[in-house]
Amino acid sequence: MSVQHAPVQRADFDQVMVPVFAPAAFIPVRGEGSRVWDQSGRELVDFTGGIAVNVLGHAHPALVEALTEQAQKLWHVSNVFTNEPALRLAKLLIAATFADRVFFANSGAEANEAAFKLARRYGHEVAGPEKCEIISALNSFHGRTLFTVSVAGQPKYSEGFGPKIEGISHVPFNDLEALRAQISDKTCAVVLEPIQGEGGVMPADQAYLEGVRQLCDQHGALLIFDEVQTGVGRTGELFAYMHYGVTPDILTSAKSLGGGFPVGAMLTSERVAKHFGVGVHGTTYGGNPLACAVGEAVISIVNTPEVLGGVARRSERFKAALLRLGAQYGVFEQVRGMGLLLGAVLGEAWKGRAGEVMKAAQEEDLMILQAGPDVVRFAPSLVIAEADIDEGLARLERALARLTGA
Ligand SMILES: *Cc1c(COP(=O)(O)O)cnc(C)c1O
Q1: pLDDT tens digits, 287-325
Q2: Which cofactor names does the annotation list (predicted)?
Q3: Third-level CATH fold of 74-302
Q4: Active site residue 276
Q5: Residues carrying CATH 3.90.1150.10, the chain
Q6: pLDDT tens digits, one per residue of 49-94
Q7: According to the annotation, is 206 in a ligand binding site?
Q8: CA distance 206 to 209
Q9: In ligand 1, which atom is closest to the CA atom of 143?
């Protein structure tokens, strides 16, 4: 017996959903590669990748196979038992990174929540209750739980919810002297995104990350890299820290790790992991067999020279075209980011209008993102066909031509 579906429309959203989102005017119903179809059969090119999630596009055959194969076997057992896909995915992540240990969660916010709690526990156990301060960057984003909005440097997400979590301070990103002035032996962790994603696709400087690592070592503070957006091949390396050659003590991953199936992970060293003993932290769904089976397929496919090497090639194609469009229509003045996490920075006359560009693109059957009001963001599938890149950019050009009246 199968479930009968009642018909639904976009207008229903405004009646039945808690109004924290304002989704587009259409409802996607099917996807294949980097194309998406809506209820009316309209076809769109997808440059959003579900916000840096659909790392292998929609309905990738290997991910469909991994999910359906696991779905026939075992969906869930909780962490009262371990399971084979979780152990296999953990081993893959350990083999590919600095990490010795993995904790699985269901989202980026949960992976960060685990990281921040672990850092505090670590500080408490190695130096006592005073070593509890966390330093993060202004304009950073780490998720939407109370701890993660308190740590992130964006007041619009953290104010108006009563008292915040204490012991957190914020310093300007890419400003080593500001961190030097703030860090002390009370600092248990410094948390950074190697490229600030939501904050406008802003990469860290090489010398900054190297200097941050040194300051953390001098003060016995853990360095946490939030790679929820930059991880799993997005920058052309498996994780962005590998570009910089600066190794964190804790790394969080989510988004692309599940390729569209919810999963998160916190990676760390043996030295740090031992402070999370039995019962100190937990989750019901984290490490779920379905999620980990998909994650295993994602990592196996992404962590190959073919896929990672292809990111750089596609990135060049994107960047060159965006710069040309920027010069021609005078909307963008700069393209920044790495690999397939790119931000087109709006020029003076277009400041604050990223949402308008996004809407105009949708009207031309193109899905794109913004990263704050001043940056148009692109985070497509890492295996997007070059023909889809060109078609999407042609649609973007039509949107820009219409917006500028050119
Ligand atoms: C998206 C994001 C998160 C939050 O992940 P969720 O899965 O939405 O909880 C955390 N950190 C960064 C850097 C992100 O981009």
Answers
A1: 999 999 999 999 999 999 999 999 999 999 999 999 999
A2: pyridoxal 5'-phosphate
A3: Aspartate Aminotransferase; domain 2 (3.40.640)
A4: no
A5: 10-59+305-404
A6: 999 999 999 999 999 999 999 999 999 999 999 999 999 999 999 9
A7: no
A8: 6
A9: 4
